[in-house]
Amino acid sequence: MSKIYVVGIGPGAYGQMTIDAAEALKNSDVIIGYTVYVDLVKEHFAGKEFLTTPMKKETQRCRMAFEEAEKGKTVSMICSGDAGVYGMAGLMYEVGKDYPDVPVEVLPGVTAATAGAAVLGAPLIHDFCLISLSDLLTPWEKIEARLLHASEADFVICLYNPSSHKRKDYLQKACDLMLRYKSEDTVCATVVNIGRDGEASQLTTLKELRDTAVDMFTTVFIGNSQTKRIGDRMVTPRGYKDV
Q1: Which segments of 125-186 are extended strands (E)?
Q2: CA–CA dist 149, 127 (Å, integer)
Q3: Which domains does the chain have, with CATH numbers?
Q4: Which of 70, 125, 161, 167 suits 134 as a labelling partner, its CA being 20 to 30 A distant?
């Protein structure tokens, strides 16, 4: 019987993939994904059929998965991190309305926020939120409102997609917004290439973060008013009482 797994493969390293995710890929006939993500898993699943599409072809990729499943194949649609966090799970269910006889199962993965947090120490112990700075699918006005409200509420904020060739100043714009409510000394950090070759992290302040070079492979962490440095680690206390 055909089936589609929507699989979060984690940040990149095979060891950070869940056992369920690895088993799904092992049991699949076809593995489909964005080219960069397929390259991350190819060596571990030799003999599988791999199909890819570039960025901005997500709907085409989903239809490809259902068409392969209708041929009687077991298919895995892979996403970096978690399939339900800026991943393909939602779109797969939307497209899947046209393929009611093909079952879909979502398998979670380690998202960049938690993987990056482990590299830095413990920045996400208290309430936090994830905000993508990419305005390809979300109007900048809505992103701006979310940054302001999250800052005013003193959330730890984790930023995905902080920069690109067309959005070089978006992190600066985000920092300027957050500085309306957060101190310029707020503990912040960046982690690049989480779980991949070239992984590196840097602790900084919100003031310094504004002028820090980042790219699409960087995850940015902005602490709350209680977040502190302990040695070379970024740590947020579990609560606001007795700190």
Answers
A1: 128-132, 156-160
A2: 14
A3: 3-110 (3.40.1010.10), 113-235 (3.30.950.10)
A4: 125
